[in-house]
Design a protein that fits this description.
single chain, about 80% helix, Serine Threonine Protein Phosphatase 5, Tetratricopeptide repeat, mainly alpha
Amino acid sequence: MSLIALIAIGGIYMYSKKAPSGAKPEQEAVNQVAENEVQNDADAFNHILKMASGLVDQTVRDSVALIQKEVTSTDKVQQAEAYKKLGDVWSRSGNIICGGHYYTEKAKITNTAADWRFAAGLLFYAAGGAADSIAKSYAIDLAINGFNSALALDSTDVDSKVQLAVCLIDGKNRVMDGVTMLKQVEKIQPDHEYMNITLGRLAIVSGQFDKAIPRLKRLAELHPDNLEAHYYLAEAYRASGDKVSSIQALENAKKHFAKMPEAQKQIEELIQNIKKS
């Protein structure tokens, strides 16, 4: 088993990995029916909202109902504030995609790079943990639109460009489009943390270990507190056949996470698995 698979099992979020399906056959059938019934974005959000409403208590539902009345205001400032309140309520309840939807509605009114960036970033984060395929697809689409809107207002926003690239790569399988964007960022900020993580893992997947290793080694040196950098570096070494360097990379990672018992445990498990492989 690869280190990347072990990391995913250990609870470290890897955007490129799909969550293992634990749904029962009858639940999968229900999910398929739901997917067949979704014809457009409005259907998709109604599906998401229905699920979210069933997960919260009556207090939250009552708060949402009260705020919804404010959305009908003809005053755009009040309307934007109402959407923000809805975003806050749903986000605090753990329904991040619902929250991201309403923050997006606010951004449509204010049309500021900051509001588009905030909404898109939240949806980008939420998409990775979405088990429901409709919710995941909806969040990715909304995030892509949000990042594009933010970049239209502020083309210097490299963080949004990197996250947009990852959405295209992992959410839409538009790998070349995403890589092109990442390479554009690399010319401007060659040490951008998330850009290097993404290009590093893509190099591992494509078997370009000679490119992945120096990139990830430098990243781990520049950002020793980035656990993914150490893990991916170790995976690049392991996949290239260099078990000694793979173990060394993980041993080095342990030094930087001495006060994190769970991380220490996961790293040690990875080391033992490499030794046994």
